[in-house]
What does this fold into?
Amino acid sequence: MYLKSLEVQGFKSFANKIVFKFHNGITGIVGPNGSGKSNVGDAVRWVLGEQSAKQLRGASMQDVIFSGTENRKPLGFASVAITLDNSDHQLPVEYQEVTVTRRVYRSGESEYLINGAACRLKDVNELFYDTGIGKEGYSIIGQGQIEKILSGKPEERRELFDEAAGIVKFKRRKATAQKKLEDEKQNLVRVNDILSELT
Ligand code: ATP
It folds into this structure.
């Protein structure tokens, strides 16, 4: 699996639609200060479901939408689509290529799509569990992150190893099953209460 392309429109400094094509191997992005290099990384984080405006160096989520320049009006929406080669089927879907799209409008509406089909953030998160790619994954190493990992608590470091070992999805499923079990136990207590009132 590898990153094939990134299509950005209306996201931060990228008002026009622009497509970054990546090939197998190393790609470097160079440019003058403030030209938008880090915005490319922000676009990758954002399309993978980042929910924290701070992580994207903004104050609110609407800050990702192109806010205009002297010569250009602000835009009403931001859209990013990431395409990954999945010919080795590391992602648990049958497609050879997977495109995840995220859009947000100034009105606050937002949407996610997987290969053109509308989906939930949860579906995007589940698609990337245990691949290292999700927004919590280790495939995006931001400034200061290495230091954070080295000086982090053992539990925080453990999350990284869980992701690499491929057991995150099982832990999430276990937590969901335990929550259901707990809810059912509560229901049973209520049923027993009602029964004892009736008898
Ligand atoms: P440096 O080399 O200094 O780290 P950089 O090339 O990484 O810079 P970025 O931080 O990616 O640059 O981009 C900063 C630019 O993006 C600034 O010019 C800023 O005005 C612009 N920018 C950020 N958000 C928006 C937005 N919502 N609308 C328009 N422009 C934006």
About this structure: Helices lie at 37-47, 121-128, 145-151, 154-165, 168-198. The mean pLDDT is 91.
